[in-house]
User: What shape does this take?
Amino acid sequence: MDSWYKFKRVFLSVGVPPTFWLVAFFLVPLALIWVFSFGEKTGVVGIDITWTIDNYIRAFNPDILKIFAKSLWLAIAATVICLFVGLPVALGIVYAPSKWKGLLLLGIMLPFWTNLLIRTYALIAVLRTRGYVNFTLEWFDAKIRVLFDLFGMGGIATALLGERFQALELLYNDNAVILGLVYVHLPFMVLPLYAALERLDRSYLEASLDLGAGHLRTLWNVVVPLALPGIISGIIITFIPALGSFLTPDLLGGPDSAMIATIIERQFKSANDWPFGSALSFLLMYITFGALALRAVMAKRGGSDGLEG
Amino acid sequence: MARRSLFGKDPAGPLDYLRKWPLLTVMAATFIFLYVPLLTLMAYSFNDSRRNIVWRGFTTDYYGKLFNNTDLMIAFGNSLTIALFSTIFSLVLGAMVAILLWRFKFPLKPLYEGTMALPIVIPEICMGVAMLAFFARIGWPNDLIWPINLANIIIAHISFTFPFVAVIIRARLAGFNREQEEAARDLGAGDWEVYRDVIIPHMKPGLVAGGLLAFTLSLDDFVITFFTSGPETVTFPVKVYSMVRFSVTPEVNAASTVLIVITVLLTAIGLWLQNKGTAKK
Amino acid sequence: MTPIIGIQSITKNYGGEVLAVDDVSLDIRPGEFFALLGPSGCGKTTLLRMIAGFEVPSAGKILIDGQDMSNVPPNKRPVNMVFQSYAVFPHMTVADNVAYGLKMDGVSKSDAAGRVEEALGLVQLPGYGNRMPDQLSGGQRQRVALARALVKRPKVLLLDEPLSALDAKLREAMQLELRNLQATVGITFVMVTHDQDEALSMADRVAVMENGVVKQLAPPRDLYEYPSCRFVADFIGKMNLFQGKVTNSASGEITVGVDGIGDIRVPHDGAASGEIGIAIRPEKASVSAEKPEGADTVAIEGTIIQIAYHGDESHVFVKTDNGLTVSVTCPNRTRTIDDIANHGDRRWVSWNRGDTLVLAE
Assistant: This one.
């Protein structure tokens, strides 16, 4: 690597344009809402910057706190499910025959490339009361009734399954949001886990098996501790976007499954309270930075997780 | 007797986890979970039924309707225009950042790298509202003619795509053998020739992959666009969003299928080029 | 004869701490094959890169053909380099690679085409011009790198570990070929290598470096037979080294007392006193059952403790009663096991007094 002052001309000509862009069209907008977050709303569009911390204090009133708590709960639940699904999947891919490996990884990545909105929409189409899941259930329900009727036991079927098929309410509740978050963020978990496990020398596993441990004991005593930096990295990489999700709770959630992003959006659109929305945005960012800092600390302690370019 | 499996004639070794049924079950369930919703969505875009549940026969009617839906086509045109411009700008800016970070040591470099990564890590919603506030505060006019009225969306998209492009190109540059640069110099090339003849040709797969990534990121973005688009500048995802809010219809299925095919294709090409590039170094 | 390259008190340190090259001065003669030999980190590559212009000396001057190169960038120096990784441009055809330097010099396309074909013929790749580098083997890529450098008709060709990436068989063939090529084109070659065998078999003169300093500069035979110091003696070939004390110093001869051997009279010019090292190459000694006679023979008795069989020769290790181990290389002249080769036998190790080396430092 060269010192910048040795090649000042090249350094400046490649350095100035992107730096200018980042400052003008990213840092300035962020700074603007940071300043707004200390302002007061005066009328429809007016904002007075009074350096009040009221907006932050308002974030701690019970209604908003409840939404923060719910966001955390939904994001954590989704992350935990991703971990429990992602670990065996990553393990399976790492120890798959090499010609399968690329294909399986691609298989995990492929849905990830499709539009977030479309993926969420696909879930709606599957889960809604007139959706494919309920339709399939109804079909089985009808077949079972026919089967029982055939043996003249229609009464038992009615007793078991109810008078007629009741569609399951799979959408517009917290479970749907968790499912949606898992659906959308699973690759975020699988990829770092895969990277961590891939680097793990398989002779560690063989040594553990050789010394008499079973597969589950090996997983718990050898794989998990050694892959811990990767696991933590995966948890945080999954958790951050899950916490900031806007579309998933918006489209899959019920009236009480609002997440932080939902109320931020409300402040900027329908409620038109930009200072409060700005304060909430910054609180969300601080949580994000905290999680990133945690990951950096863990990565330093456990050695690099190899995810940075 | 050794257990035989689908995967080959050899008996399973102790670490062939993929051949063990608990793992195989989780794996299969995951793939079903990931793919069934998308595949049914795509399949039902060809279903000859408005109610969209029972299969009533194959039709491409909804694709025809899609192309006759002026609003949707305008939105699609907007999306492509935005993606095109943001790709060009992101490539230039991203390549500059990549060269800067790959080539030079300078004071506060870790801080600079961290700031450059911010658009990648901060929640989209925060960036979206920041852009909304920014354009409102500087008094961005919203009565411009097409395509200049898309400029604010393009600017917002460039801001979050070029750091991604920089990451990709920098990864490509990391595989550059500095001896090639020295060889060019040794044979008489000056600063400019070194870039033209050696470094930029080496970057090419990264530029293509980065460009495709920028294009798909821009084409796919909903949240940031949602906050920067106006009634006259609706993009495809924003349009689909408003349609999805009301109902599940075959037209939306068809539109989604088109977008899925485009993005998957573009990303696959990008990935393939990137692999080809790294395999050759 | 004016040197083609004059290195004058060159010093290179990185960040004021690490001294890569420490006040080196040497001259390279026109038309010779010169090798810089040393272990990794000895400064040989840094020195080569300073000649090419990729590193700037902290102090001192480099002259090429009498011209000071201090302010001349690499692209303006009359030297060309063959890189360790060859650095053949992967996105250009073989012909474009070879023509690259000519293009930079503004040579016309038609002139360049002829010179490229000539250069490819020189490295035995005629007709390979349209191939891409990834269609070539490692050895062929190296030839392209050679042609690319030679086509510019440099005053000096610099080679950075040119054979290290080749497998053993190919390396031996290339050693000969490079040597012949150098004789054909008559250009001065300066090669950096860590492989002593390579340096000895190819170069006219070799500079052995350690820790940024040239320890000895001599033709290969002198380097092997008359190493100037313990480092060179040990680095090049195998050596039995003993520590001794000068007991008597006469004109042209000294007597050294070595623990476990006794007094040895060794031919030596100049004065010597105190602690001194003496050495004998394993192949200069021999093993025998009877004590060899003769005034000029040094003989010591011991027990064979190990015999390592290498096919063409065996390395026999004999331990004296005082605990000193001497290794002797015995050629396997017949297919049967020689009677010298038995573990635990008492044997005499002997050599000609004149073959003993005296190492003052």
The longest helix of chain B spans residues 70-103. The longest strand of chain B covers residues 104-105. DSSP finds eleven helices and one strand in chain B. Chain B touches chain A through 91 residues (CB under 8 Å).
